[in-house]
Amino acid sequence: MTITETLSKNRGELEVKLRNLLAKPVFLIEMDAFALPCGCKGATINTRGLQYDDLEIFEDHIVKYLKDTSENLEIEPSFLFARLVPGTAEIASLNSRVLCNRCYMDFARGSGKKPRPDIYILNFIRRE
Amino acid sequence: MKLYAPHVGHLEGLEELLNGSKDIYGIYMAGTPDYVGTGRTNLSAPGLEDIAEQTEYAHEKGVKMEIVLNSSCMGGIHLTPEGYNRISWYFKQLNNIGIDSITVAEPYFVEMLAKEYDMEVVVSVLSFVDSPQKAEFYEELGADTIVIDPAVNRDFDKLEAIRDTVSTGLKLLVNEGCLYQCPFRYAHFNFFSHANGPGPKLSVLDDYYYYKCLSLRISDPQQLIKSPWIRPEDLKEYKHITDIFKIGGRTHFPNWILNNVQAYANESYDGNLMDLLDCPKDLKDLFYIPNKELDGAISQWKQCTKVCNKCGYCNRLAEKIIKVYSTEGCENVLKPLKENGGK
């Protein structure tokens, strides 16, 4: 399977899982794999119709789905987060990111679920 | 019938549109945002030379050219001496080019253009003219044509009262898919006006209003039905109000615009209504609204009191006909709304 086919299949599967979980037609408008100049790499899933309340209530389920999707894309699910529209109920995207050493330190120094107003950490595996 | 079609703003696009259809009466496009912005997103910002070239081409084809400068908020800059001089200079250049009409939302510009220039002055949909009183006010300022706020597209008493009150031309925007009575309407257009205007440019995190707009419809799809679009088949119901209709969609490709022109010129479309709506285009890959199954709904809307919690017609209609695109493997399939969590 090509990388685009893998992305397409996983976008659809995750969308179906979220719809079944939340009983509403959540829309995953785009799934992208990325590699940044700093060394970070991963996948971004732009969401529409997914709300902060959904995340709070179904966090365990959503984390599991996102982990599975990440692994299917061969991305180690070490850092999973949602990007919020600050001050609102809107979730702009779900993300799986393998942090480079520099970005890892930025997050590792902090604590709590929301190190920035627009980031809600779903899973963060600290390095030894 | 006079159909106004959107245009992204470059000559190649204009050639494609005007060679693709004989049914376009007028073209409208944004100008450069350096003087007056627009209340919507644009894909290009034609300079004066581009506008002159495209106006000449449109006129050769017998088509009117309209420039849209419908910023809903100028931040007061137009009332400063420097601002006035800059904007006045730009209007003069457009006048010299020979554009046929200019669409503005700012009341000050309506009066200024009416007093000092020869161009037809069109009051933008972003002036929110939704009553005979407002229409009369703009007529007295010097408006030649008023684009009526789509919020009253299904309120025939209001439409007829506006028609009877003013002698200006009236134009109806047929395919705006904005939320009915949208709470973000003013704020969103003001935001766009600054983002797409003379500056200073904003460094914005996200378009909050757009996210919210989509979320509201995804969680409550009856909002798609309540939006005040006019189906191609229903144009005949409006011809005693006006014969001028405007298709929205400056950020779409020519083939999308031509599909709309064909649908509205033929007054018929057999497909997904979402294909025709300017906004929200993201949702056309989520919802399928079979246009032909909306036959007859206009009869209900013509007598609608807009008290949704007592009526429930749009909700029932949404549940009956809207389908949701879902994925099975890599294939897209259509499923009934209820199976996908419709209210």
Automatic annotation (TrEMBL), chain A:
Name the UniProt record assigns to this protein: DUF5402 family protein
Species annotation: Methanolobus mangrovi
TrEMBL record, chain B:
Pfam families in the cross-refs: Peptidase_U32 (PF01136)
Annotated SUPFAM superfamilies: Thiamin phosphate synthase
Domain of life: Archaea
Membrane-spanning intervals of the chain: none
Protein name: Peptidase U32 family protein
